[in-house]
Amino acid sequence: MSSIGPAALAWWYYASVAGFVREMMPVDSDEPVQSARRTVVLFLVVAFALDWVSWLLAGAQSGWTIDESNGMWGTLLAVSMFGPLVAAVIVRVTRKSTVDAGWRPHIKGGVRWYLLALAIPPALTLAGSVVYFLFLSGDFDPEASRFSAAAIAQLGVGADQVPAIFAVQVANAVIIAPFVNMLLAIGEEAGWRGFLYPALREQNPHPRAAILTGVAWGLWHAPLIAMGYNYGTDYLGFPVLGIVAMTIFCMAFGTFLCLLRDRSGSVWPCALAHGSLNAVAGLGMWFSRSAGGILGPMPLGLLACIPVVLLAVWLLGHLGAPSADVAR
Length: 328
Description:
Number of strands: 0
Helix content: 55-70%
Strand content: under 5%
Number of helices: 13
């Protein structure tokens, strides 16, 4: 990949997302409305700039590829999750924004939203994997050979112990890892669902605000996708199709996160669901002979995200005010 490719692509998306939000925000000559629009655009400019610049600089040093085993990329990907949080803080201070950040956890009366945050991502991952393997049955490996080989090689166990190890790994991904991942995911969620979504819903219907937030969240990943993150590089339409797939997924899964934000009144269930997704998204890959790609079996794939999209379509009619028991 030439050095100009990722930079040009990143700049194009950087310019387009701010323009997209400006077009979608209501046209109004009232100063409060214009001020709200400027606040949203400023947040996007800062959030994108903070992370895109660091990603592009790192990409230039690594040959426009991402190697998570590399200490530089591993650290950068974790730290950059806090870019949206930093952007939200900067905009709150400079623009004196009063948008509710949702930092209060609202656990009392809101436990069910935390339970949903834990349950829905594994369910969507499983459903997405089923859809993917129904379409591409030849890629299904019922023996989970890749996982078995890795477990035997890395842990030195016998083949008869692999099922137990598999069960432990799944339990960890579903029950424990989401809470660990939440501590990183809050960096993103404090920006997307803690600032951008409530800022947009002040001037837009909730469904439109959720969709716009998802578009911004998806496009924020563009430089990473252009360097092969999540989908690799060996697919038709690289990298544009990958960016489109990521944006579709972020719009769909983001709708669920916005529902959690609305109903719980807190950003923490969103962070827990985001952490859960990061923990379980790769489970279906263990059963893939090809290690997956743009179509799945990760829920980010074009086929595997079908259940996520269907859920989002249904949820768009249920976005709204927080539940009475957590609003008090």
